[in-house]
Amino acid sequence: MLIRTKEEALVVEWGNGLSHRLLLQADRMGFSFCHTVVRAGTKSRLEYRRHLEACYCITGRGWISLPDGSATHELRPGVLYALDQHDAHFLIAAPDADLELISVFNPPLQGGERHNLDQDEFSHY
């Protein structure tokens, strides 16, 4: 049995916030589990080419939208989104408070992955 607190997790500055990486590839669970903080007022251009990701909002408010603007969905506590097609997307945190998500990746993250948000294309890992 593995027991790990948020304080014991690897903390990574992922690009526009912090990722508390509670389960990683080395834990041999077949997925990773993270508590992700998205800084208030940020907009992140993201894409996961090698991972599927599901996120469950636990606090804050924001939006996830497709690059072409054809769909935008509100994120608030109790809402889950799953990127089941390696979807490129914008993750936007409302300006008044951080957005906090529980994120699950398959295959699992190794641990140190970070986004490069200073480029024109969608950041990926």
TrEMBL record:
Q: Kindly indicate whether the keyword Nucleotide-binding belongs to this entry.
A: no
- Report the InterPro entries cross-referenced here: Ectoine_synth, RmlC-like_jellyroll, RmlC_Cupin_sf
Among its keywords, does the record have Lyase?
yes
EC number(s) stated in the UniProt entry for this protein: 4.2.1.108
What's its catalytic activity? (2S)-4-acetamido-2-aminobutanoate = L-ectoine + H2O
Going by the UniProt record, its keywords in alphabetical order are: Lyase
Say which enzyme class the record assigns. Answer: lyase
SUPFAM superfamilies xref list: RmlC-like cupins
Q: Which Pfam families match?
A: Ectoine_synth (PF06339)
What top-level branch of life does the organism fall under?
Bacteria
Which pathway does this polypeptide act in?
Amine and polyamine biosynthesis; ectoine biosynthesis; L-ectoine from L-aspartate 4-semialdehyde: step 3/3
Q: Which family does it belong to?
A: Belongs to the ectoine synthase family.
Q: Which PANTHER family match?
A: L-ECTOINE SYNTHASE (PTHR39289:SF1), PTHR39289
By what name is this protein known? Answer: L-ectoine synthase
Name the source organism: Streptomyces tauricus
